[in-house]
Specification:
heterodimer; A: 564 residues; mainly alpha; B: 368 residues; Rossmann fold; seven-stranded mixed β-sheet; 11 helices
Chain lengths: 564, 368
């Protein structure tokens, strides 16, 4: 967005430019007028000063000449004084002329000549006066005539100076006129420029506003006709662009709103249909409730009657409870007796069990000793194996000795003897080993038999012990069961007492229940009435749902007129 | 060429250059009044340049002879403007100063003018750039009248005046003051310079036999001629005059007894004057004693040295310095006295001396 992108800035820029132009115009005009006025005033002042001084100078010179001439014809102190006074006045005016601005070197020279001329004139007249005072009248007249030459020169220079002054003033005035004309042209040019720029600014500003404004009007009409489709606005100044964006946003929001309204209308329609259906169901439900409440009312009446009939049951409940209490007390006495007997039998079985335990322990000790003897027989077996190894080695020795005896031949007799001994030793060893083996085997058999016997005894003792222990356990359990029975009987007795108390409470509850049942009857009747009212309201809801449905359909039809 | 010179001057004004400072001198160097002025100027310039110039820049003296003529003064002024001098010391006579003053004052950068001896009252109106280093004719004439009336006790006399601004100024102020003091003026007659013939006036005065003194309101040369004519007629009355008669002491016996007013006398016994006179006589042993224009010119150069040396070397700065001399700035103690200016460029303190010619010298007789 450029700096001229907004109408405000364009207007400010255009008007500012115009203002500057008019300001410049005014300054130029005022400046020109002021300069011209000042220049005219200066020129007029100079002209007036010059003119006044020139006039005064001419007058004083003339007066001085007259006084000088008069003194020649009729001398007097007054004329002498006038002559001197007018001369001083002339010199003063000439000095003042010299101080005027704008004098040229020519003017200064003219003033110098005028001073000289006046001095010559004054001296001439003064000498004429002296001659007159010396009564030399003719000489005085001639001297006075001689004064006219410088006087004429003075007047001539004065006229020339005046003419130059006037010429300069005329030239200056012409310059001023030219300057004024030029300034007038500049002012006109500035004015025309200002008007053109003002017109251009106004045209550009109006054009910058008009097209976007037309687009916005068209867009507004489009909205007015219900056409909420996107506007598609072109670029425009800042303020109108904001308006266009606002309208676009408004269109977008309206489209969204209409869309939502359409959806909501559909939802309302469906909800109205649902509501209508629900109201019908509600009406049916109300009918069912009425019927159910009727049943409840009847049931409540029957409940009252049943509660009233529960009085006999409660009475028989009290009787039964009293009977149960007596039975329980007897059961408690029986249980106590059983417990005492069981504890006595248990103590006997405990003594038997201890005897059997001692027997079992003895049998186990005998078994241990037999197993020790068996292990010792094992050591004998080891000796038997050694005997068998000795027999085998002896056999080998005998064989080796026989071989060596054969190799030695005749020289092997010794070795043959050794081989024969070895063979005998072998045979003896084997026989001894066989007998030992047989004896050990017999011993093993007997020990085994004894061990089995002892083990059988220990087993029987163990089983008997286990039986007695089991019997003791059973008796203990019987005692505990009897105690339990006794305790239970006590509990039953207390329960029977409590049952009677409860029966009393049940009676009170029954009265309360009867009262409640009666209230239920009344409430059922009220509910029946409310159900009737609900049915009426449900009918109204159904009617409203129909109206709502119709309204939602109309709303949908209305919204459908918008084009989004 | 002008631009190059302007650039050089600008560079000089900014410092860092030894370009000379141009100072104009304008006066009638060919006559006895103006010649001592030029000598004093050359003396001052040589002294100042010998001591370092103005902040190291030497003074270049641009001397132009106006011959005491107003038309010549205009040409001289135009030439000095073209030379772009920083200041002008001159002119001597009131007529030349009045003629040249507008030339110096034209434009946006007027040239300060220090006239040593232009005593006509209207010089004060010649412009703010004109400063006068001497009393006005009004003061000379009034001082002379007072001296004659009160100092010498004279009651009647005649006046001869040179018909130029100076002579008219002396005459006007003298007559007015003398009459105001009760004196009688028997006649007032003008004359023209360069060998004036005042015989008719003297004859008439002799016939009246009443004049106790004769005032010659003119220059020294005029006075010498007139004095000869007076004495030739056997008239013994005192001849008196203004400061224009300065130098008449060299005219011989005929000048003995002449009274005159002076803004400066070489015989004044002040340290500054003694030093100046000694330097002048040392440099110009055959030129006699310096006169008032010479002393004032000498003072003017040293004053310019001090003022230009204390600021920028420009006309505007110099003008501002001169305008405040004696007020914001302390006055300058010169050979001619304490220099400081009033609002019209005249000396704030205007001592007028009365001298008389005795034995070829002007001796001060009274100081007002």
């Amino acid at each position: 967005m450029t700096i001229l992108g907004s109408i405000r800035n364009r207007l400010i820029g255009g008007l500012g430019l115009l203002l500057l132009l008019f300001l410049g115009l005014a300054i130029a005009t005022v400046g020109s007028l002021r300069n011209i006025n000042r220049a005219v005033a200066e020129e007029l002042e100079q002209l007036a000063g010059s003119s006044g001084l020139t006039t005064a100078l001419v007058g004083s010179v003339a007066d001085q000449i007259r006084a000088g001439e008069a003194y020649v014809t009729s001398p007097s102190a007054a004329l002498a004084s006038d002559f001197l006074r007018f001369g001083d006045s002339s010199h003063a005016h000439r000095r003042a002329l010299r101080l005027l601005p704008g004098l040229t070197a020519q003017d200064q020279s003219a003033l110098n000549r005028m001073e000289t001329s006046q001095a010559r004139m004054e001296v001439a007249y003064a000498m004429a006066h002296a001659l007159r005072d010396l009564s030399r009248l003719d000489s005085a007249a001639r001297q006075a005539d001689a004064a006219r030459g410088p006087a004429d020169a003075l007047i001539q220079d004065l006229r020339a100076l005046t003419a130059r002054q006037q010429g300069r003033v005329t030239t200056r005035i012409q310059d001023l006129r030219d300057q004024a004309r030029w300034r007038e042209q500049v002012v006109w040019l500035l004015l025309v420029t200002a008007i053109l720029m003002g017109g251009a600014t106004a045209y550009l500003t109006v054009r910058a506003v008009e097209r976007p404004l037309h687009q916005l009007i068209t867009a507004a009409r489009q909205f007015g006709d219900g056409d909420l489709r996107p506007l598609g606005l072109a670029a425009m100044p800042k303020e109108l662009a904001v308006l266009g964006e606002t309208m676009t946003t408004m269109g977008t929001r309206l489209r969204s709103l209409i869309d939502r309204v359409i959806r909501e209308a559909g939802t309302i329609g469906m909800s109205a249909s649902d509501l209508s259906a629900m109201s019908q169901e509600l009406a049916a439900g109300s009918q069912e409730i009425s019927q159910a409440i009727g049943g409840v009312t009847v049931s409540a009446g029957r409940q009252v009657q049943e509660v009233q009939s529960a009085d006999s049951v409660i009475a028989s409940w009290n009787t039964t409870a009293a009977r149960d209490r007596g039975t329980a007390e007897r059961m408690a006495a029986d249980g106590e007796r059983i417990r005492v007997l069981a504890e006595d039998e248990g103590r006997d079985l405990a003594g038997t069990s201890r005897l059997l335990s001692g027997l079992r322990q003895s049998a186990q000790a005998a078994g241990g000793q037999l197993r020790t003897a068996t292990r010792q027989l094992g050591a004998v077996n080891e000796l038997l194996d050694l005997a068998h190894q000795l027999a085998a080695q002896s056999e080998v020795l005998a064989l080796n000795a026989a071989v060596e005896a054969a190799r030695a031949g005749a020289h092997g007799d010794g070795m043959g003897a050794i081989a024969a001994e070895a063979r005998r030793l072998t045979t003896a060893s084997r026989a001894a080993a066989a007998r030992i083996g047989e004896g050990i085997a017999a011993l093993h058999e007997r020990v085994g038999t004894l061990d089995r016997t002892i083990q059988g005894l220990a087993k029987q003792a163990f089983e008997a012990e286990a039986g007695t222990q089991q019997g003791a356990v059973i008796l203990s359990e019987i005692a505990r069961a009897a105690a339990t029975v006794r305790d239970s009987a006590d509990l039953v007795a207390r329960a029977a007492g409590e049952s009677r108390t409860i029966a009393g409470r049940v009676g009170a509850l029954r009265a309360q229940l009867e009262s409640d049942a009666r209230l239920n009857v009344a409430a059922s009747e009220a509910v029946t009435s409310a159900a009737a009212e609900q049915a009426a309201a449900t009918h109204e809801i159904a009617t409203s749902a129909a109206v709502l449905l119709e309204a939602s359909e109309r709303l949908a039809a209305l919204v459908a007129e918008f084009r989004i | 060429m002008r631009y190059w010179r302007a650039l050089l001057l600008l560079a000089a004004a900014c410092g860092g250059t030894d370009l000379p400072v141009r100072i104009g001198l304008a006066g009638p160097f060919s006559d006895p009044v103006g010649a001592p002025m030029r000598r004093a100027a050359e003396l001052a310039v040589s002294e100042i340049n010998a001591t370092g110039g103005i902040n190291g820049r030497p003074i270049e003296l641009v001397a132009r002879n106006d011959a005491g003529d107003p038309d010549s003064a205009i040409r001289v002024a135009t030439g000095l403007v073209a030379n772009e001098v920083v200041a002008v010391i001159g002119h001597v006579y009131s007529g030349t100063t009045l003629a040249a003053a507008p030339i110096y004052g034209a434009g946006s950068d007027p040239i300060p003018v220090l006239t040593p001896s232009s005593s006509a009252p209207e010089v004060a109106q010649a412009g703010h750039h004109v400063f006068r280093l001497c009393p006005t004719d009004l003061e000379h004439g009034a001082a002379l009248a007072t001296w004659l009336r009160r100092g010498l006790g004279l009651g009647r006399g005649a006046v001869l005046y040179l018909d130029n601004p100076y002579g008219r100024g002396i005459r006007q102020s003298f007559v007015a003051r003398f009459q105001a003091l009760g004196g009688t003026i028997l006649s007032v007659d003008p004359y023209l310079g360069a060998a004036p013939d005042v015989g008719l006036y003297l004859d008439r005065l002799a016939r009246q036999e009443a004049a106790e003194f004769l005032v010659v309101a003119g220059n020294r040369e005029d006075a010498e001629v007139i004095l000869a004519q007076v004495r030739a007629r056997g008239m013994t009355m005192p001849v008196v005059g203004g400061d224009g008669l300065e130098g008449i002491e060299t005219a011989g016996d005929i000048a003995e007894g002449v009274y005159l007013t002076a803004a400066y006398l070489p015989t004044v016994n002040t340290p500054e004057n003694r030093r100046f006179v000694a330097a002048y006589r040392s440099r110009y042993p055959d030129a006699g004693l310096p006169n008032q224009p010479a002393a004032a010119t000498y003072d003017a150069f040293y004053l310019l040295r001090d003022l230009l040396g204390s600021g920028r070397v420009t006309r505007r700065a110099l003008l501002e310095a001169l305008e405040t001399l004696g007020e914001a700035r302390p006055p300058y103690q010169g050979v001619t006295g304490l220099l400081g200016f009033d609002g019209e460029g005249d000396l704030a303190r205007t001592p007028v001396l009365i001298g008389t010619v005795q034995n070829g010298l002007i001796r001060p007789v009274e100081r007002k």
